[in-house]
Amino acid sequence: MAKDRLAEVLERYEAVIGLEIHTEITAANTKMFCGCPVAFGGEPNTRVCPVCLGMPGALPVPNEAAIEWTVLAGLATECDIALWSQFHRKQYFYPDMPKDYQISQYDLPFCSGGFVDIEVDGDGVAERADLGGALPFVGPEAIAADDGYRTRIGITRIHLEEDTGKMVHVGGSEGRISGATHSLVDFNRAGTPLMELVTEPDIRTPEEARRFAQKLRSVWLALGVSDCNMEEGSMRVDANVSIRPRGATELGTKSEVKNMNSFKSLHDAIAYEIVRHADVLDSGGRVVQETRHWDAGAKRTSGLRSKEEAHDYRYFPEPDMVPFSFDPAWIAALAEQLPELPDARRDRYMAELGLPKHDASALAAEYALACYFEEAVALAGADRAKPVANWMLGDLAANLNAESIDIAEAHVTSAMLAELVGLIEDGAISGKQAKEVFAEAAGTGDAPGAIVEARGMKQVSDTAEIELVVQRVLDANPDEVATYRGGKTGLLGFFVGQVMREMRGQGNPAVVNEVVRRLLG
After folding, report:
1. CA distance 421 to 377
2. N or C: which end of the chain has fewer CB within 10 A?
3. pTM for this structure?
4. Which range in 12-21, 87-96, 460-469, 479-488 is most confidently predicted, on average pLDDT?
């Protein structure tokens, strides 16, 4: 989707977007209403029992840990926690639903009324056409912040339910039934605790949707509630998208988009739908309320089925479980367990370690990355936090991307990075040498100090030793010395280069420069 096409549409129309984010509570270890283990992969239909398969007479027993994690998630997102709640049965018929109903929550969720603040900068600012003040501002207020803006996305509810099984359409494209020769059902996932967060329709651009989902993932990871692996399906995002003419207050007809298994897909699918809706309206047509499938390969959506309403599911209270009554003291005790969340961690990095906002935000957003950073800083020293951050966001990030691994699998450990930074800051090696050392450490797993020692790379910073080499170079090049002293100071680089060659690149560049300047007078 071309950026200029999206921008043109958003000049005339306001997008109204809401997200439904389903997160498997992998921290609970077992399924929502039985003791079957929760794990990705495995032989199909081997992690099942009469309860999660919906056998007659099998009764559900709620997973206490999953309920605690859900309440903790609500507390982390400023939600109100219901003191009285219950589960409902959501009736619908699909092959991956062994009971032909899903135990979920309807009008009495555990958490409601929260919010998450997001910040948008870079190209995402251009998507917000109403920031300039030239057009009527209808959506949630956006506040200028640094080079972008900050906006608050309301949370309607966070409720708990059981996940469905998984359909495998053999021969179908993008996992779809179209073109498949046959379909298989794996019930291993059926019954997994599934936490669903529903936002208010406060999102106005594809980039805001992406930033919200990324922010929420970082909060969930900080809590430890889930691994949030979108490729494996433990975090899944659906988007409800509609548009309306600028200045209008009535909501347009929405479409729900599914099958977005990355943040880029989320952005691109919403952008596509916004433009598609505009094309339909501009041609005099009418947008149909439906569920649509995002095809990442073709970069387009296609219709799946008409969108259901709440009454289509015929909700009624789950008869096999009594309602839940929470003690306020229990909720308060859970609140005491809240860890440091990404925004607070970012602010601490800025205040205590002096990191710029960009670096602090990038490191604080990913819990595993933040842990690696803090381990490295603890070893290297707080005064070296900025060099540690530079290496992590530069060479280390590039190495992880090239290897397609995450920070937990990094060949250069936090201790190795701290050692490398120490070698640079103490003048033992130059920045150029450090890149060579890092590359070898990433390939072999050897410690930076050992690599420097084995390759004889240790940098010479002793002024007296460097002065001897500089004097030899000056004595060997009297004509160049005279020319330099005559005003052609550009020759400084020539002398520095000659000295570094004599010292086989082991001279400290800063000290070499200082000595050359001084002896040239």
Report:
1. 10
2. C
3. 0.86
4. 12-21
**pLDDT tens, position by position, 277-295:** 999 999 999 999 999 999 9
Is residue 44 within 8 A of residue 255, CB to CB? The reply is: no
CB 318 within 8 A of CB 87: yes
C-alpha closest to that of 434 among 459, 460, 465, 409: 459
Q: Which two tokens stand for residue 346?
A: 């970012």
Q: Which two tokens stand for residue 383?
A: 């005064």
Which DSSP string do the residues of 169-187 spell out, in sequence order? EET-GGG-STT-SEEEEE-
Q: What is the pLDDT of residues 394-423, one digit of tens each?
A: 999 999 999 999 999 999 999 999 999 999
Sign, CA dihedral 199-139-301-404, equals: negative
- Residue position matching structure tokens 């919010």: 115
Which of 257, 260, 238 minimizes the C-alpha distance to 303? 257
Q: How far apart are CA 437 and CA 15, in angstroms?
A: 50
> Which residues 6+ apart lie within 8 Å of 49 measured at CB?
34, 35, 36, 58
The number of helices, as runs of H, and strands, as runs of E, in the chain is 17, 17
Q: CB neighbours of 376 closer than 8 A, spacing ≥ 6?
A: 388, 392, 414, 415, 417, 418, 421
Residue type, 331: I
**Torsion angles phi and psi, residue 144, rounded to 5:** -60, 135
Cβ-proximal residues to 511 (8 Å cutoff; 6+ apart), any chain:
427, 461, 463, 466
341: pLDDT confidence band, cut at 50, 70 and 90? very high
CA–CA separation, 390 vs 297, rounded Å?
A: 35
For residue 461, CA distances in Å to 429, 473, 496, 497, 515 come to 9, 17, 14, 16, 11
CA distance 315 to 346: 42
